[in-house]
Amino acid sequence: MAAKHSFHYGGEPGQCVCLCVDKARRTQKPRQKPPAQAARKTNSKSRKKGKRSVSATAWLVAACLGLVLLSPLYYGYVLKAFSAAWNWARDPAGDPAYRKYESFGIRIPRKHSIHGIDVSYYQDRIDWQRVARMEEDGVRIRFAFIKATEGLLKVDRYFQRNWREAPKAGLICGAYHFFRPARDGKAQARFFLQVVGFEKNDLLPVVDVESLDGVTPLQMRAQLSDFLAYMELKTGVKPIIYTGLQFYSDYLAEYFKEYPLWIAHYDQPRLRVPAQTRWHFWQHSDKARVDGISHVVDFNAFNGDSLALEQLRIR
Fold it and tell me: Which residues are catalytic?
């Protein structure tokens, strides 16, 4: 068996060993963290910075989105897009130049924004307040042409009532005379003016010429010229000429070019007149349904804006 050894350096046994160990601990360098652990801490800090950056960006995006969603302009675009999609869904195979308006019962040209009607005794008694209130998706009736006279003797039986009540409802109104080419043109103009007391802000007077009435084209134009000249002399304005597209093409296209033109031409994508022809009103349907009117009625589009329409009023 080996012998036991004891070491004594002037103290208790084991004291030297403890002192040496304590000294070694005090002089030992701090341990370096393993590279992987240091990298993990660095990555953790980077992730925290990244999270803060992403969070700030998200809040900024959310704030901008909130401002957009609260903007009336945004809702205007949304409603416009929704309305267009809904209209397409209702009539996907329809003519792109037209849009169907259910309440009016007709297709209306998309290009024009000012609309009106023309009426006579055929429409019977009209509730003009209901006419003026009717609206569908921004389309409403802004103006009305009212039949006053025909030939030398006939006065439309509803003219006086219509002429009185339509302006009260806020409509811009004009009166028209149904022209008879076989009768004296000047006498017809005089009769028209006797019945209609044109005033400031009325639409220009209208002469409705649709047939030869048994006379030659030359005779028709001569009588029409007399009618127009007398009206211009007495009112100081040029009357509007109303006619159908075919009649215009056959007999009037090369004449009376200085007068405002109102053309009837139904169910077409556009008014098919020569490119140089300047027209103002287009009667595109004779089958419109309008609140306050018991029969179908002619529907018209104006070729211009509100300012242009004002130029066709008596001053």
Answer: 118, 210
